[in-house]
Amino acid sequence: MKNRKISLIRSRSIGIPGNYIIPARKKVIIPTPFGPAVIIWSIDTGRPGIVRVFISNSRLCIPELAFNSFCRAQVSSRPEIDCAAAAIKSYFDGNDAVFSMDSLDLRQCPEFQRKVLRAVYAVPRGSVSTYGLIAKYLKKPGGARAVGSALAANPFPIIFPCHRVVRMDGALGGYQGGSDMKRALLQKEGVVVSRTGRVSCGSFYYGKGQI
């Protein structure tokens, strides 16, 4: 067992209810125009499931962070993981990639976060929504901050496109990959972002609020 190259991710570290333990493996996606991205995945129910997606940030070395977090995980892949990796790379290259939720292990996410992520998943390329409108859509009035917190902890950036969620005044808000990446991703999708960092569009997804 000492030589078994897996990383055991306990529920307290990734928020899975109970005492569930995941044997993790990892897949590196290199390159993207913004730097490397890393997929953490596992096999638990007989099929591969993605546990985490790390995207590059100018302040962090993402491969080092991912490998330190899962230092005993072996580097390996499966066709399902290769498909997800290819889609992520294709998206970063500027293509209209299609992502499936079938390969994602959402058990680590609390119920409200899952609702937020599914709402964000529906926001199409070239559109933006706001934290407040998503909260309203989920029947949680005044829950903009809760939505923001759920997206800040999004385990699957790009797949769940939280970069398409901005503040009600059009300001970009936060993003795991940093504000420069958020701006660049939106611009790749055809969203106009001003020099002051505000999006300009006719209306928000999930609402009719004008910017």
What does this molecule look like?
The chain has 211 residues and is α+β, with helices and mostly antiparallel strands. It folds into 2 domains: 7-106, Double Stranded RNA Binding Domain (2-Layer Sandwich); 110-200, Arc Repressor Mutant, subunit A. The protein has 7 helices and 8 strands, in the order βαβββαααβααβαββ. It has a 4-stranded antiparallel sheet. A hairpin with a 7-residue loop joins β2 and β3 (37-43). The protein is globular, with a radius of gyration of 17 Å.
Please trace the helix and strand order, writing H or E for each element: EHEEEHHHEHHEHEE
Q: Enumerate the spans where pLDDT stays under 50 for 5 or more consecutive residues.
A: 1-20
Indicate the overall shape.
globular
Number of helices: 7
* Major sheet: 4 strands, antiparallel
- Biggest sheet strand order reads 1-2-3-4
Looking at the structure, the CATH topology of the largest domain is Double Stranded RNA Binding Domain
CATH C-level of the largest domain: Alpha Beta
| Separation of the first and last Cα atoms | 58 Å
Radius of gyration over C-alpha positions, nearest whole angstrom: 17 Å
Helicity, as a percent range: 25-40%
